[in-house]
Amino acid sequence: MKKITLLLLLAFSFSYSQTTVEEYNYVTKGYAETIAKGLDLKKGYSLNEVYHYTDINYDFLFQSLTNDRTKKTSCIMVIAYSRVWGNKYYLCMPIGNGDLEKKYKEQLSVWDASILSAYSLALSQILTYSVASVE
C-alpha cells in the first residue's frame, strides 16, 4: 500500500509545475485584458475547464492553465462572478510557490462572507468529485 501511495504522489507531482510570477500576473490581470480586446490566449499555454460551480448569487469557473511545451499545469485560474454586484474576479491558485500563495490569500481576504461561503462550497464539490473519481 505504501508503494502505491508513493507512486501516486510521484505521478501527481510530475503533472504540475511551479507557478511563475509571469503566469500569476497573466491570470489575475492579463487574461481579463486579453478577453476584453478579443485577443488570443497567451502564446504557449492552453486552458482546460476543471469544474464549473453555480448557485443563485455566484458563478465560479475553474480552469487549468497548461504549459503547451511541458504539458504541465502551471496553475488553476478561477473566474468568479457575483450576480449580486455584477463583479468579475480573476484568481490564480498557484502551485508550489509560497509567495504567490500569499497573494492569492490576500485576494480572498477582501471578499465578504457570502462569496467566501459559496467559494468554499465550490472547492468542497471539486474535492468530493476528485476523491470520487479516484475510487
Textual characterization of the structure:
With 135 residues, the protein is an alpha+beta fold. The protein has one domain. The protein has helices at 2-14, 21-36, 98-109, 113-134; strands at 45-54, 58-67, 72-82, 88-94. A 4-stranded antiparallel sheet has the order 1-2-3-4. A hairpin with a 5-residue loop joins β3 (72-82) and β4. It is globular and about 40 Å long. The relative contact order is 0.16. Mean pLDDT is 88; it is low at 1-14. Keywords: Signal. It comes from Flavobacterium frigoritolerans. This is Spi protease inhibitor domain-containing protein. Residues 1-17 form the signal peptide.
- The separation of the N and C termini measures 15 Å
Order of helices and strands: HHEEEEHH
Alpha-carbon Rg, integer: 16 Å
Q: If you average the pLDDT, what whole number results?
A: 88
As a percent range, the share of helical residues equals 40-55%
Structural class: alpha+beta
Strand content: 25-35%
**Unreliable stretches:** 1-14
Q: Number of helix segments?
A: 4
Counted beta strands: 4
The dominant shape is globular
Q: Total domains, how many?
A: 1
